[in-house]
Write a structure and sequence with these properties.
alpha/beta, Aspartate Aminotransferase, domain 1, Aspartate Aminotransferase, domain 2, 7-stranded mixed β-sheet, 12 strands, 37% helix, 18% strand, binds pyridoxal-5'-phosphate
Length: 366
């Protein structure tokens, strides 16, 4: 007889699950460090007070106050908003609702956010991996031909980890071409850093556009696990049937409502301005550094760059500095740096200087 761990569970697993490699999120990698610039989190932390809730009762499945506040914030109707456990649950909900296992497919434009593939793999939905280059440079006809019969087309905008943006006109044209055959899902996790680029206004004219949003990035609430799926009722009605019965805890709803007060939205916007300014400074440092061969100029609270020598990442860890390494375009010497506070970015500068032996302290004062 084998040990209880052997055999049985393996035999029971569907092939697509047995083949999964564990998703390594920024936080699941047990790294040790003191400065965390690897998960695109906000450096700002606000303390929230709970307001005496009746936790003996099940929560409102879709807390009205939060839905109302978020719909006001983005300028859509409350019926066009579904609240989820992070934008990640929105991604999963769309795949579970619209894709039939072992039959349907989704399209993505790589390199892009890892959860689209993970979700497709876990639900045994095929992945049509197209390129960012096609999305950015290709003609709409060409893009839509290559999308083929994919049911969902994920456009991460701005794109994580490249920061690239697709214009609203192009998104609209793709949606028009794919009407009746696919949903165009615009993941706007970082849109607060370039709010004028949002595709939300397209919801009025395109029944097959979905916009994903989160409180994890600019709103500085990654630990709260709150996201929103914005779309027209013909898309949201089936989603609501698939959604877990009580997805949002009373405690989460309480804090989300506070985060969406007028004062807190104004504060978020000020923080975005500061982070965008710090980002420009970091970009300059990177462009001037001999240790860096390429800097991707893009939107979002992160900068992605290619290092001259991959060993620089190990040196950063030794200095307690944790950033996110990436393999992009077949090369494993890329790094994504999240925009932290001023002190944290000074640590990045010190690391950069240590790589080249440069000691240009004057740049600290910029
Ligand atoms: C961070 C991120 C998300 C996930 O957001 P949660 O709301 O924390 O689940 C979704 N999409 C992209 C592109 C992200 O970078």
């Amino acid at each position: 007889m084998g040990s209880p761990q052997d055999g049985l569970a393996q035999n029971l697993l569907p092939k697509n699950i047995a083949n999964l490699s564990a998703y390594s999120s920024a936080k699941s990698e047990k790294l040790s460090g003191s400065t965390w610039l690897n998960a695109n989190e906000s450096p700002y932390n606000r303390e929230y007070q709970l307001s005496g809730q009746a936790l003996n009762r099940y929560p409102d499945p879709q807390p009205q106050q939060v839905i109302q506040a978020y719909s006001n914030y983005v300028g859509v109707k409350p019926e066009q908003v579904v609240m989820t456990r992070g934008a990640d649950e929105g991604i999963e909900l769309l795949v579970r609702t619209f894709c039939q296992s072992a039959k349907d497919s989704i399209a993505i434009f790589a390199p892009t956010y890892g959860m689209y593939k993970v979700t497709a793999d876990t639900h045994n939905v095929a992945l049509n991996t197209l390129s960012q280059e096609l999305l950015l440079q290709g003609e709409v006809d060409q893009i839509c031909t290559q999308v083929g019969d994919a049911k969902l087309v994920f456009i991460c905008n701005p794109n994580n980890p490249t920061g690239a943006l697709v214009g609203q006109d192009k998104i609209a044209a793709i949606a028009a071409r794919l009407t009746g055959s696919a949903l165009v899902v615009v993941d706007e996790a970082y849109i607060e850093f370039c709010p004028e680029q949002s595709a939300v206004s397209l919801l009025a004219d395109y029944a097959n556009i979905v916009v994903l949003r989160t409180l994890s990035k600019a709103f500085a609430l990654a630990g709260l696990r709150t996201g929103f799926t914005l779309a027209n009722e013909s898309i949201l009605a089936p989603l609501r049937k698939v959604l877990a019965p009580y997805p949002v805890s009373t405690v989460v709803a309480d804090i989300a409502a506070q985060a969406l007060s007028t004062a807190n939205i104004a504060s978020m916007r000020r923080q975005v301005d500061t982070l965008n300014a710090l980002k420009s400074r970091l970009q300059q440092w990177l462009e001037q550094s001999d240790a860096v061969t390429r800097v991707l100029a893009g939107e979002g609270n992160f900068v992605t760059l290619q290092l001259k020598d991959k060993n620089a990442i190990a040196i950063a860890y030794q200095q307690g500095l944790v950033m996110r390494p990436f393999t992009l375009y077949g090369e494993d010497d890329w790094l994504r740096i999240s925009i932290g506070n001023e002190q944290e970015l000074k640590e990045v500068k010190a690391w950069l200087d240590s790589l080249t032996g440069s000691n240009n302290k004057a740049l600290f004062r910029n």
